[in-house]
Amino acid sequence: MYGRHGFRFGGPWNKGFSCDYPRMRRGDIKFLLLEILKESPRHGYDIINGLEGRFRGYRPSPGSVYPTLQMLEEGGYVTSQEIDGKKDYTITDAGLKLLEKRGERRFEETPEMRQAFEVKESLGKLTVAAIDGVRGADEATMKRIDEILNQARRDVYSVLAES
Predict the structure, then answer these.
(1) Domains of the chain, start order
(2) Which residues 6+ apart lie within 8 Å of 30 measured at CB?
(3) pTM across the whole model
(4) Full pLDDT tens readout for the chain, 163 residues
């Protein structure tokens, strides 16, 4: 279940708190893969990291990247060769032509998405600080951190009630 900005906060234990982030339109992933391969040949994990660096908050899953790379290779848009145990992909002339034919339609981050990502990053930092704070802490410290977190939650609900 994804919320208003399409990403989920927390790990597998967190099933309900999320934001609604627009998913990549069907077929767009192939163009993103071709765009990043246009810069230089890369292996799959490097492609995933490159896309994450380019589009803050968007990290494609290996389950969407590798089958798409295979489809692009079967279509003649990329080639691959194994180097040091990793499959490196290179865009072909046909891949370049496909990108050119598509034109300039890039994924763009909206102001709302940017704000949601900033909140997610802040929440992540708060989580790390709270976990670090209670690790090996005495009872008084843990109680104080719990009070701070509960007050923060109440403050957030207060802001939501005002809007």
Answers:
(1) 25-102 (1.10.10.10), 111-162 (no CATH)
(2) 68, 71, 72, 77
(3) 0.54
(4) 344 444 444 444 444 444 444 445 556 788 889 989 999 999 988 998 888 877 666 778 888 899 999 999 999 999 999 988 889 999 999 999 998 888 765 555 667 767 777 887 888 889 889 998 888 899 999 999 999 999 998 998 888 888 7
